[in-house]
């Protein structure tokens, strides 16, 4: 009697193993496909500005540009395009560092208000250019959060640069901090910009995802900013999300762990 039961168990186990194998195969296929897509995206994003640099340099070398204004405009374009390349490389470098998980993850106690103030100082010129007013609403007596300050400032910069970029002149950005629960604080960053449709909201945290409208050469982003922000926030044990309405504005929120004295 035991025989058939053991046999049935064995068959069940093999069946189970088969399923797991299939699952991991399809996982490998998926990650292989996304790796290919990643490489294709990177090549495209490098090739476009490089081609443009090449053609402008050639035009200058040919000596066909005799008008000094045009000459300056060509040089300016070359500078802009090389900046795009260097931003892209910088973003890719950050992502690969985060992916490898090799950087020392050593968070420490920081107060959100000082992180936010430092981030805003960094963005002063962009804010000034678009005459954007930033209102910071701090909840009183919030405890410190446990973060790596440079990484966390990168998160705020990435979210705020988008908020500035996708807002009209003279609009307003509101940053609000609050206590989410016993273990997390929450930061809301709201803009009155062009907003993101429900469909696009599902994808904005994916690598290289840009909403179609923003896929134009004057907009330098490679679609990596929010995926970098998400990776960093999750590395800290927090979450990131979005609420938005097309043509009304967007709110990005993040949760960050409260610093505990017994840590480290
Ligand atoms: P990018 O480098 O293109 O800004 P991100 O990952 O930072 O890439 O953002 C992805 C896309 O999400 C952007 O291209 C833009 O279309 C959209 N997006 C991000 N933030 C906002 C915002 N505050 N308002 C409107 N659209 C936004």
TrEMBL record:
Residues 7-34 form a coiled coil. It comes from the Bacteria. It is an enzyme of class 2 (transferase). It catalyses: ATP + protein L-histidine = ADP + protein N-phospho-L-histidine. Residues 41-260 form the Histidine kinase domain. Its EC number is 2.7.13.3. The keyword Membrane applies. It is found in: Cell membrane. It is a multi-pass membrane protein. GO terms for molecular function: kinase activity. Keywords: ATP-binding, Cell membrane, Coiled coil, Kinase, Membrane, Nucleotide-binding, Phosphoprotein, Transferase, Transmembrane, Transmembrane helix, Two-component regulatory system. This is histidine kinase. It comes from Pseudalkalibacillus berkeleyi. The lineage of its organism: Bacteria, Bacillati, Bacillota, Bacilli, Bacillales. The chain holds residues 86 to 349 of 349 of the full protein.
């Amino acid at each position: 009697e035991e025989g058939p039961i053991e046999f049935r168990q064995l068959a069940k186990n093999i069946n189970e193993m088969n399923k797991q194998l299939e699952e991991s195969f399809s996982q490998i296929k998926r990650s292989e496909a996304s790796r290919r897509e990643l490489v294709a995206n990177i090549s495209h994003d490098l090739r476009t500005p490089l081609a443009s640099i090449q053609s402008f340099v050639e035009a200058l070398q040919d000596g066909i540009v005799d008008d000094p204004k045009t000459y300056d405009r060509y040089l300016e374009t070359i500078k802009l395009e090389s900046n795009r390349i260097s931003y892209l490389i910088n973003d890719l470098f950050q992502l690969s560092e985060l992916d490898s998980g090799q950087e020392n993850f050593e968070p420490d106690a920081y107060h959100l208000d000082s992180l936010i103030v430092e981030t805003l100082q960094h963005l002063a010129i962009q804010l000034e250019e678009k005459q954007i007013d930033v209102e910071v609403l701090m909840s009183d007596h919030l405890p410190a959060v446990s973060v790596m300050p440079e990484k966390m400032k990168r998160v705020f910069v990435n979210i705020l640069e988008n908020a500035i970029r996708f807002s009209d002149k003279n609009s307003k950005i509101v940053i609000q901090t609050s206590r989410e629960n016993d273990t997390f604080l929450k930061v809301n960053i709201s803009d009155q910009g062009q907003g993101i449709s429900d469909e696009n909201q599902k994808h904005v945290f994916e690598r290289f995802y840009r909403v179609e409208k923003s896929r134009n050469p004057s907009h330098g982003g490679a679609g990596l900013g929010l995926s970098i922000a998400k990776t960093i926030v999750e590395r800290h044990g927090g979450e990131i999300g979005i609420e938005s309405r097309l043509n009304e504005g967007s709110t990005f929120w993040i949760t960050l762990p409260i610093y505990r004295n017994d840590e480290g």
